[in-house]
Amino acid sequence: MKESMAQEAKRPLLSEGKKHPPLGEVKGILLPRTTVNNWDQIQKFKAKDDDLVICTYPKSGTTWIQEIVDMVEQNGDVEKCQRSVIHLQHPFIEWARSPQPSGVDQANAMPCPRIMKTHLPTQLLPPSFWDITCKIIYVAQNAKDCMVSYYHFQRMSQILPEPGTWEEYFENFINGKVSCGPWYDHVKGWWKAKDKHQILFLFYEDIKENPKSEIQKVMKFMGKNLDEKILDKIVQETSFEKLKENPMINHSTVPKTIMDQSISPFMRKGIVGDWKNHLTVAQNEKFNRDYKKKMEGTSLTFHMEI
Ligand code: PPS
Asked: Is the pLDDT of residue 82 over 90?
């Protein structure tokens, strides 16, 4: 573990006595046990033509694109975007933690047009989504930064397994032994799916580098037409600094029994290239060799720094 990272992780890696439930599995993909227990309801979910689905591998900029989409939908009206916490605005399809209503129950109770979120890989998406013409926005982040963000998230999440040491987590991540399965198959699956479905495929690194042009893509995809002034406002209002302080977005209202942000904040760093503070030279070399094999033959490429 690198020194700067050791400082960031100096708070307890594994809080003693904390019970993190183990993951379950569907078709070889690890998922939260509560999701697996509710699988029947999730698979039977009925998608509608006017649905918009935000889809990501975990820790790839989901919350960021959710707020961008909401601001576009609300024509840049900041007050309207503050109407409720973000996880209540966009049902999380595979969320299932009773006694809360499941993501499917929330979506079914919602007026149309609905905007929802999922982290499912293509092969686990409820089949009804493939039979209709709904829109999907997929955001991908480079695997190294995603792994780092996921590691810190698992340190603070009380509903995912504890990540173990960074060295252990590194091995688990590259072997797909994390919730939602291998990053590699997830991004490749959705990259392929975009050729047959209405999918806007975006990159975290592009949004970071040029938010306005990426937000413009979202706007056009959603069939909206907002003027330059509103676009500039959306860029400002969805910056990392703004969202980190926004209680509707930063998950500060989520109970500690789900996310303990005293261990690591949900809005942690929001940068491209933090992997350089985490991967050792040997891990980086191992990662690159493995990555080359797993990503061979795809036209999908990522920026590891900007
Ligand atoms: S989750 O739990 O899967 O929904 O998490 P997700 O929202 O996908 O990812 C969280 C990471 O996204 C970062 N983030 C941002 N980065 C840049 N700009 C903005 N506006 C922004 N909003 C959220 C957040 O900080 C997490 O990344 P890390 O690297 O851990 O900081």
From this structure: yes
